[in-house]
Amino acid sequence: PSRVALVGAALAKALGVAVNVPDFDKTAFFPGAENANELFDQWVKECAADLKAAGSKALALAGTRQSKEVKQLAAAINAKLGSAAVKSVKTDLGQYATLADLIAKLDSEAVTNVILLTPADPVYDADGFAEALEKAETTIHWGTRTNATAWACDWHVPAAHYLESWADTRTESGIYSLLQPMILPLYGGIAELELLHVLTGGDFAVGELSPAMGAVKDTLQALTGKADDKAWKEALQTGFVAGTSYEAGSTKAEVPTIAASDAPSPEKLEIVFSTDASVYDGRYIDNAWLQEAPDPVTKLTWDNAAQVSPQTAKDLKLYDKIIKLETTTAEENHIGEGENARAPMVKLTVNDTELMVPMIIAFGHADNAVTLPLGYGQTSDDGRPGAAELDKSKPVTGYVGLNTGFNAYPLRKKDTPYFAAGAKVSLTNKLYKVASTQEHHSMYGRALAREVSTNEVKGLSFEKQMEKVKKQGMDSHAPPNISLYKPEGSSTWSKTELAKKTHLADEVHQWGMAIDLNTCTGCNSCLVACQAENNIPVVGKDQVAMGREMHWIRMDRYFASQQYLYEDGHKVKNDGKKVENPAWVSQNPESVPQPVGCVQCEMAPCETVCPVNATVHTEEGLNSMAYNRCIGTRYCANNCPYKARRFNFFDYNKRNPLIKGNLYKGPFGEKKVGDATHNQRNPNVTVRMRGVMEKCTYCVQRLESAKIKQKQQHKVNVHKSGLKSTEVKVDRTKDLRVKTDSVKTACQDACPTDAISFGNLLDEKSKVVRAKGNDLESVKAIKEFVNKKPYEPVKGSPRNYDLLQYINTRPRTSYLARVKNPNKAMPDAKFLGQATINIH
Description:
Blueprint: H1 2-14, H2 36-54, H3 68-81, E1 89-90, H4 99-107, E2 113-116, H5 122-125, H6 129-133, E3 138-143, H7 148-152, E4 155-158, E5 167-170, E6 176-179, H8 192-199, H9 211-224, H10 229-238, E7 247-248, E8 269-274, H11 288-292, E9 300-301, E10 306-308, H12 310-315, H13 319-322, E11 323-325, E12 331-334, E13 342-350, E14 353-361, E15 369-373, E16 419-433, E17 435-436, E18 451-453, H14 462-467, H15 497-501, E19 511-516, H16 525-533, H17 541-545, E20 554-560, E21 566-567, E22 570-571, E23 573-574, E24 577-578, H18 583-586, E25 590-596, H19 605-609, E26 615-617, E27 623-625, H20 635-639, E28 646-647, H21 677-680, E29 693-694, H22 700-721, H23 732-736, H24 746-750, E30 756-760, H25 767-772, H26 777-787, E31 800-801, E32 813-816, E33 818-820
Parallel strand pairs: 2-3, 3-4, 8-15, 10-14, 18-33, 19-32
Antiparallel strand pairs: 1-7, 5-6, 8-16, 9-17, 11-12, 13-14, 13-16, 19-30, 20-25, 21-22, 23-24, 26-27, 28-29, 31-32
Helix pairs in contact: 1-2, 1-3
């Protein structure tokens, strides 16, 4: 935090804000650079120049976790720029006190009755709250989990999920919004407004009448002055009430005083308490889908760990314990492999509190700092330090949250909620088993995730780089692909003329996908959405460690940095030796995320080796699976170059993999079917059993449903026309083709950045065609057959490329290369946008 404030102060001063900037160590920003001061000053100067040039269009943002000083600096910078994006409003938050105020009032007995409506767990995660809560006379907890706070209270009220409840809320600008239930409460939970209604003297719901809905109606009437059904239905339909907002407010930009502080060092580390990518602050500890989703950066599952940079690990004499180098460029292994993977345990001491926790390396991490994800270690029965011991009479988690990670909240005090300085690390002789997916399903050594720069890179202009997107890596010198056979249907089985011309005989639908690496953030939304949609089981930590996770789409993450200096496309040499780049370049690698699922090869290697024809190609271009035909030879997985197939080593759906040893007990293991799993699983998707191979199917159930609805609509239209069905001529393209981009896959539906495009490659209006084009040979053959004339395929984005194109599998899923747009005057500009250009 001190470094963030110092950088902000330096930037504010460069913009003309009257702020004092104390002297500080600038080598932390450019480690190993002899001219660190000059590089830092250049960086600040160029940032300020860009902001001044943008003027009121610029905006300085301070994260919610930053200190008060950093937020004041951001406000002062925005005031100096006259930022048009800054709009102040008077919210309702000013009437509320803080958690520290509540603790003080409980201690002084000014508050004697407490009702907790928060999804947080303050007995578990808030410093001093548990002791203060014991002084209250009556305590009530309302929530979806019986967590530590629920057990500490006198009463626990089961909460209805927000999708089961009537409620209302406001956006950040104050627009009034309505929430309505999608289903009735599955477990009889109580909505928040219903509980508040009863606590203020009302009655619970009677029959279908919901007091929560009545409260929402009353608020709507108070805001709009309208109580009629028309206003109510309009508000429900739009989801918000136009014209409602908070009152305009004003803020005064106060310039803070930035105090000088000691720079962090290996002896006095800085700790950053971060929310976890899976369990957030701990509230999702019992969500197995999230627990098994690998951390976007570390690829760790089912655990948290202290994260440090490679240099800090070396300073702490931990580097060799985590990564053993065989040579200067090759790893022998990464903290062990598979079920033998272990991370060294360290003792972290800060705020006079100790914590035993495993430590791992996070590339690109700041030096002399430790990131410690929160939310884990809520309960355990394996005697681990740093986790509460399981009390079977008061369980705070289920099987999912048991024995997962370490509780870092005791290190987090009232005055250091997000950051703490002066932490010390001491080594131990203990190791901890970790389950990381970093080495799983890897395709290393090839140009997989590709990027280009708007600047000239190694003698290539931006235009030349775009031309060579398809020719990076092996593709740059591999000969053109040729087929060993013609992609035509068999004259024996293919009865139609189109089927004889191409093995993909459907002239209505040919499905395809494009994934834009420029907008993908690696957030894992696609992974979890796919798991929910397609009934993909969790397998537990032990099985993940053995590489048996079942995710149909995985989030690969690549790091890349330049070791040597380049000029005009060649490595610079001095006295015959290659010149290495400064340490700050190699220690700050680029991170490139890339989602990978089955790419639906037209010439699929998996299909040719299946002895029972369980994996077959559909007429619409899908590499399909007949689950009840699969006998589990796994030849297909071995032959898949994309490593996108998953095998059910055990019957994960019927035998809980989270019960220790249960999977290995076979028929003697605990078997359970039902208990609300029917509410969790998608009834439109098969539940696979032991010994069956599975993979991505482009959500074929959604495709079939869309096709059926399209046919039903045509039937309705015919009925309305009054004609007999025999009198109606069916135009297959017009009447049976699914409307443009009307069907979405689960991963596409969940992507928050719209990085995934999916649709019909025969529909030139489709977004996927604009992204990737429709120049596949099969699509061209179909178009020419239907149109009865030569067809010129639509070309998509020049950033489009096929993964492992040189092996000639003709994938239906392609990727759009990432584009970096660095400021040429920045010190690191010449090192950006080339993370993949030399991969072979």
